[in-house]
Amino acid sequence: MQNEPLAFRMRPRTIDEIAGQKDIIGEKTALYRMIKNGHVPSMLLYGEPGIGKTSLAHAIAGTSNLPFIAMNATVSGKKDVEDVVAESRITGKVLLFLDEIHRFNKLQQDTLLPHVESGAIVLIGATTENPYHDVNPAIRSRCGEIRQLSRLEPTDLMEVLQKAMADEERGLGKMPITITDEQLTLIAEGVNGDARKALTVLESAVSASDEVDEKIIIEDWLLENLLGRIGLFGDKKGSHFYNLLSALQKSVRGSDVNAAIYYLANLLETGDLVAVNRRLLVMAYEDVGLASPEVGPHVLAATDAAVKLGMPEARIPLANAVIEMCLASKSNSAYKAFDAAVKAINEGKTGDIPLHLRDAHYAGAAKLGHVGYKYPHDTPLGSFGGWTNQQYLPDKLKNTEFYKPVIAGEEKKMAAIYDRLKEFRKKK
């Protein structure tokens, strides 16, 4: 067993040994009670790598005493599924743990699904991708539980590390290791909630340390070297990458500079500069908009500069852009107005274009009644420029207002002009 990685050896054997995830498998949860009483429902476990999906499946199997079969959907075929079905016919109900379940194809599903539905196979599917996006509805409908696991807290990871240090059978308990609580805390806080990484760092530190006076002394610099960039998260083009993009946009929208910079840093470390630039440009017009109209061109300049510079220098203009957007006055009125117009069109609220607005640049246009257009520039209106009171919307929509100004930043001036023009129209 000692040839196996420490993270493998220290997997929880029952659900009582699981660290963290108390909201999912704690003693006061329905899932815990069901498993303890002998009922294991089919389920989907969703979350980032290293947060315990595989460990939870093994623990459930250990608690329920069901025959356990583990498969990975990236390498399994129809024959593997048929073998699981055959096993269930011999032994009775089996627990199938299917990692990367979103990679399962339709043929594999068709072979497996009837047996999951009948209860001959209890399916525990694990995925790093959002199951509502990447797992087929046929699988989802047969899983009574769809649970999103969370990254472990440092206190949970301390529990995992201390167990590994004390366990003489599966862990490092028989080794003369000298490591402080502060060093264990450094590991627990440096792996971004990943139990597998925490145990791997601990094992690597022990392997790389010298033995002095029959003691293995763990040094701080070694841990810091092993931890390195291990705390980063977000797989390029995976669900968590899009979660990072979402978190960045919502932090900017909420004017939280520190959170926005944090998520920008995570995103740039994943290496997809194109996707980050695209999202920043969208945010400039979706979330900042008319309240600070100068921000859009500023962000465009920053993203153009980022493309020309490349990483790591691209971080400089992009950090400027993110902070400017965070602290700018914000308005979503423009795109909301557009969406309202689209909604009206899709609901059939349309009408004929007024005759005086139709194309009149051809002989015979007057005979069709395409006359009467008043050129606004011919009628000056103070410092505004030119304006004339004429109808532009179709008759059926002539009093409709799609635009609702936000009284913020520069849009306050636009809103005042908008309201003043409405008053002029009412005087017609």
Automatic annotation (TrEMBL):
Entry similarity comment: Belongs to the AAA ATPase family. RarA/MGS1/WRNIP1 subfamily.
Sections of the chain in a coiled coil: none
Entry superkingdom: Bacteria
Domain AAA+ ATPase span(s) in chain numbering: 39-151
Keyword Nucleotide-binding in record: yes
Keywords carried by this UniProt record: ATP-binding, Nucleotide-binding
SMART domains: AAA
InterPro entries: AAA+_ATPase (IPR003593), AAA_assoc_2 (IPR032423), AAA_ATPase_RarA/MGS1/WRNIP1 (IPR051314), ATPase_AAA_core (IPR003959), DNA_pol3_clamp-load_cplx_C (IPR008921), MgsA_C (IPR021886), P-loop_NTPase (IPR027417)
Organism annotation: Sporosarcina psychrophila
Protein name stated in the entry: ATPase
One matching Pfam family: AAA_assoc_2
